[in-house]
Amino acid sequence: MKKYSKLFIGLLFALTLTGCFGEDYDVGVPTAHLYLGIGDIQLTEANISWQTQSEDVHETIEDVQEFGLSQDEIKVLANQEATLDFKENEKNGGDIWTDPEMSAVLISDGKQIEIEMNDNREFRFPSDKGNYVLEVIFKSNAGSAQYVGNILIQ
């Protein structure tokens, strides 16, 4: 009887381990969120080139600035603090990104203002008032995703 219990426990342990190896860490395109202190606003996907085993997404926007300005206006104050965050794609679960690179710029009349973020992706909007397109780029081993938002600095 002792022999059968050890065999049963060993078999159960082996099956548990094989279940871990079969997990799917294949993730979809993340969503980008802009936090402004009182809540978050999801930014709109623009140009996407994302390929994993379970997902192959390619979207192209010809005029990013025009597309960004067509989005709902996000009103912020001059020098207001904000944070960028990226969340897992709910439909394809998981947020396993290997060394992602993130960058952001504000675009106005064809000019770009680079946004400097700290390690927590926190930054400040500039003091120059006006209408801008926020462009955020997320790159990982699965590809790249671009997000936009229509920013009005008051």
Task: Give a structural overview.
The protein is an alpha+beta fold and 154 residues long. The chain contains 2 helices and 11 strands; from the N terminus they run H-E-E-E-E-H-E-E-E-E-E-E-E. The model has no long low-confidence stretch (mean pLDDT 85).
List keywords for this structure.
154 residues; four-stranded antiparallel β-sheet; 11 strands; elongated
What characterizes the major β-sheet?
A: 7 strands, mixed
* Backbone shape: elongated
Rg value: 21 Å
Helix content percent band: 10-25%
Taken as a percent bin, the fraction of beta residues is 35-45%
Mean pLDDT: 85
Structural class label: alpha+beta
Q: Helix count?
A: 2
Number of strands: 11
Distance between the termini: 78 Å
Spans of at least 5 consecutive residues whose pLDDT stays below 50 are: none
- Please trace the helix and strand order, writing H or E for each element: HEEEEHEEEEEEE
Write the layout of secondary structure elements.
Elements: H1 2-21, E1 31-35, E2 40-42, E3 44-51, E4 56-59, H2 64-69, E5 73-76, E6 81-87, E7 101-108, E8 111-114, E9 122-124, E10 130-140, E11 143-153
Parallel strand pairs: 5-11
Antiparallel strand pairs: 1-2, 1-6, 3-4, 3-11, 6-9, 7-8, 7-10, 10-11
What's a quick, concise take on this entry?
The protein is of the alpha+beta class.
